[in-house]
Write a structure and sequence with these properties.
Layout lengths: L2 H14 L4 H5 L2 H6 L2 H16 L14 H4 L1 H11 L33 E9 L12 H18 L7 E5 L10 H9 L11 H6 L10 E5 L4 E5 L5 E9 L2 H18 L5 E2 L3 E2 L11 E8 L1 H4 L6 H7 L4 E5 L12 E6 L7 H20 L1
Antiparallel strand pairs: 1-5, 1-8, 2-3, 3-4, 4-5, 6-7, 8-10, 9-10
Bound molecules: D-arginine.
The site of D-arginine (DAR) has 9 residues, from loops.
């Protein structure tokens, strides 16, 4: 694409979609100063935001070092999304030591003792391109590497389970029926080729080759292979003990850290993942709460979102982004901070934010 045309397109999208962070911070002069190979590489990174003007971020990294190489674009986007001022040094610090903070939802209210809780981290193995730039062979090679790690995990008394693949002809291939039931159980990800943002970035290419999931026998520890990142490592259970949930995740993450080649990490941005929204801890921790009073007459959850914002929480409908409250006012709440906050702080914000929301619900 000619630079002049690209810059015209960026300006047009900026007019119509100021929320698109890629076009907000894209600088035409800087782009024109890049060499041809860098320009080509950057066009792949921003394709999603050009083809989907309504994007929130509008860019996905294709390689872990894209964040450094294209910092003039990525850094202001990252600071904007993660609310980090221009003069603040970004430094990700990990802390999984949950002593000294509250974490038992039933201590807030016994009615929260059986809450659906989920926490996940995104990780990518540094030796491979990120999913947007992987060839089919690289996707299959990565899946084989993950399966090798899972074959050890299967023998671990605490994490034993099975690997289910979507790769046609895989010895672990799951049936269409099993895939459908795992998706309905919110254990497996949906058909990525239906996501226009991922399609434009090449992240859903070669679907469903190289995709699958590891699930523990208790079905409380799962690993997605080949979704938006190489790995989405998660713990999920019903109950009220957030510390036990996070500790479960951390135990599985540590096992995989020892079984796989090094993950793509940086002292500045922490976990280097496809989407800039998922940097830092690369963690999303969420609860499904029934808030019938707070969601009454609030079909699009606008009022609840405004109430949750100062608590550092984002609200989604129970059926995911852009959905409304489910039965009984069921909503998904999670801390929005991921970069510049530790795992301990994320748990703390989730607990304290839930406590405040619940007080408003039962007032
Ligand atoms: N739809 C893309 C990504 C938004 C953040 N969600 C992720 N990464 N799943 C956008 O730029 O709007």
């Amino acid at each position: 694409m000619k630079s002049e045309q690209l810059i015209k397109d960026v300006h047009a999208i900026r007019e119509a979609h100021p929320e698109n962070l890629m076009v907000r911070y894209f600088d035409g002069e800087w782009f024109s100063s890049l060499g041809k190979p860098e320009q080509e590489r950057l066009l792949n990174i921003i394709a999603t935001g050009l083809k989907n003007p309504d994007s929130q971020m509008g860019a996905y990294a294709m390689r872990p070092d894209d964040y450094a190489l294209f910092a003039p674009l990525f850094d202001p986007m990252i600071r904007d999304f993660h609310s980090i001022p221009p003069d603040t040094k970004i430094k990700q610090v990990s802390d999984w030591n949950f002593s000294g903070i509250q974490g038992d939802l039933s201590a807030i209210d016994q009615r929260l003792a059986d809450t659906s809780m989920r926490v996940r981290v995104a990780r990518n193995v540094a030796a491979y391109p990120l999913p947007g730039a992987m060839s089919r062979d690289e996707r299959l090679s990565f899946e084989a590497l993950a399966v090798e790690a899972f074959s050890v995990l299967m023998k671990d008394p605490g994490f034993g389970g099975q690997y289910l693949s979507l790769t046609p002809g895989s010895p672990h291939q799951m049936s269409e029926r099993e895939y459908t039931s795992r998706v309905q159980a919110h254990q497996m990800f949906k058909d990525m080729s239906a996501d226009r943002y991922l399609n434009a970035a090449g992240i859903s290419a070669d679907w469903p080759h190289g995709r699958g999931m590891y699930v523990s026998e208790q079905e409380d520890f799962l690993v997605w292979v080949g979704e938006e990142d190489h790995l989405r490592i998660m713990a999920m259970r019903r109950g009220g003990d957030l510390k036990a949930l996070f500790t479960r995740l951390h135990g599985g993450l540590e096992k995989l850290e020892h079984l796989l080649p090094p993950f793509a990490m940086s002292p500045t941005y922490g976990a280097l993942n496809s989407c800039p929204t998922n940097l830092g801890a690369g963690m999303r921790a969420s609860l499904h709460l029934k808030l019938p009073s707070l969601t009454q007459g609030d079909a699009d959850l606008k009022r609840l979102k405004l109430l949750a914002q100062p608590l550092g929480l984002v609200v989604r409908g129970a059926a995911g982004e852009h959905s409304g409250a489910g039965e009984g006012g069921l909503v998904d709440i999670s801390p929005n901070a991921r970069l510049g906050v530790s795992e301990k702080e994320i748990l703390n914000r989730l607990y304290q934010g839930t406590k405040t929301l619940w007080a408003a619900e039962i007032r």
